[in-house]
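re: ur question from the group chat, yeah i did fold both. here u go
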Amino acid sequence: MPGPMPDTPGHLLCFGLGFSARVIAARLRQAGWRVTGTSRDADGCDEGAAKGFAMVPFDGAQASDALVQAVADADHILVSVPPSADGDPVHAVLGQAIAAAPRLGWFGYLSTTGPYGDRQGSWVDEDTPPAPSTDRGRRRLDAETVWLEMCRDKGLPVHIFRLAGIYGPGRNQLLGLAAGRGRRIVKPGQVFSRVHVDDIASVVIASMARPRPGAVYNVCDDEAAPPQDVVAYAAGLLDMEPPAAVAFEDADLSPMARSFYAENKRVRNTLIKTELGVDLAYPTYREGLTALLSTIKRD
């Protein structure tokens, strides 16, 4: 079982409907929830509306009357937009309105494991002091901090979710291999933690059912693994030979891709199981990729 569900449907306001947030919102809507989403542009609003969500624009700089009203109407708010160099745009524009929202019983922030920084392959859990080693990680920690300060100072019911590397339908190693773009990059000792998007939804929704303001949760599967092992397993599922191994030093990577290899850690997920009662549907990449195999179109 994925985890508990709230007893009665509510109204979720979701800032940003990205890869993870769409799955969370869709699952709640199927359970009878009202879901309002935001998008930066008209195309995004149209796309969300086509999926059955009420949509309001939010460009990160100012809030319309309709968005202010949505904040006041919501009993659950989820922020899934990333911070910029100037900070968290939702906090900057609507932080005070959110803190004063009369019906709000739960607030969630989708972060990353970036605040832990590089741990040279060692384990981290929610009690590990943050030590971000990249600008992205520092921005995430800053965003977490301003929301947690509002929890402490204003009673905002904040819950932080530190997500590992996300995969799922439309975003996985099988797709790259099937399209002939797969790469097997090897950096000795390097591991990454991962999580299937369906398990992210289970964790976030379980938190709504069992709120604990001020909580921080690591959201990942049970096995941090070398990236080349994941590629090789995916190739086996596709009955392909895995791509030739390429040393990290010789790989032609973008600065963004290369920066991910600068952090090496194993993320522990005990708390989402013991406190939230979540039983992961995909405890390792093997179960996740095997389930995704049916979504891959091949010649």
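okk and heres the other one u asked abt
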Amino acid sequence: MNSSLTALDGVRVGHFQRIGKGWLTGTTVVFTPLGAVGGVDVRGGGPGTRETDVLRPENLVHQVHAVCLSGGSAFGLGAADGVMRRCAELGVGLPVGANPDDVVPIVPAAIIFDLGRGGHFGNHPTAEFGYQATATASRRPVRSGCVGAGTGAVAGGLKGGVGNAAITLEDGTVVAALAVVNAAGSLVDRETAMPWLPVDGLRRPDREDRRRLQEVLDKRAAPATADQTPLNTTIGVVATNAALTKAECTKLAQVAHDGLARAANPSHLLVDGDTVFALSTRTTELSTAPTGASLSDPNARHVLLNRILAAGADAFGAACVDALVSARGMGRFRAYRDLCPSAFAGD
């Protein structure tokens, strides 16, 4: 079963990363070659973004051709140049000229801070990262863990990464999410050693594992040093096959932040750049009540939309926790799975 963004027709995802020899960073691209309606909501106090104004509901362009998520802090925004280059080679973009190839790809982007985590501060994603992630984007289920934009992620002192989740509603509508979790807040309750949100099959770690996890969290809570610079950010995409407008996509992005807030405590701090994009592939129409129907009509558009919004928050929260439990330790960064193996005894 595909529990990721690629469960949606028209969505492909690709990762590209470099690990070792001073590198620990990467880029993830959500590629929608047929276009998708987009929205965005930025809640963190230190965002790094590109082409977010184009997604405002009142603005002209309605089609997004890819979303670029990257490490590298502000330097990593350059990865979107490579995404645009690959899209243009494929003839994917907004038509702006007389010739079919006269297109401008619309590629919003957001970044996390991971500079120096591989050992060399100057190693960060470039346009080549975005190009390769787009060129290898596929319909296969999306990998979770320390891949793509999540390669250098750290969440609440533990190794972060990329997480995925998908929810299918009773009417067949699919709502899926991809999160790159690099949060300043913790995704784990220190007392129970369990994630704030439930995870199927996960059990409470034994006493030794809880002690080991608490030691790591306590060390992280100590006064920051130059090696513990609290610069973070959780970014991602929530998407649905339901036919939504730009304004409705914006609302979906806003509500998806609720899922982040449930998964990471606290969220949306000044040192976070939390940004969520929303996409609608518009392959499934919302069956709505006739114009003028009562607001209490179960087929009223806002009733159907509310179900999608609630699923968006649930999916994004689940994707955040998936990133935590899928990550493996790298370098000096310990992972939840490594510290609490007894929690996965049922795997």
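fwiw on the second one: The helical segments are 79-89, 127-135, 207-221, 246-263, 301-326, 336-339. The domain at 5-344 is CATH 3.60.70.12 (L-amino peptidase D-ALA esterase/amidase). idk if thats what u expected
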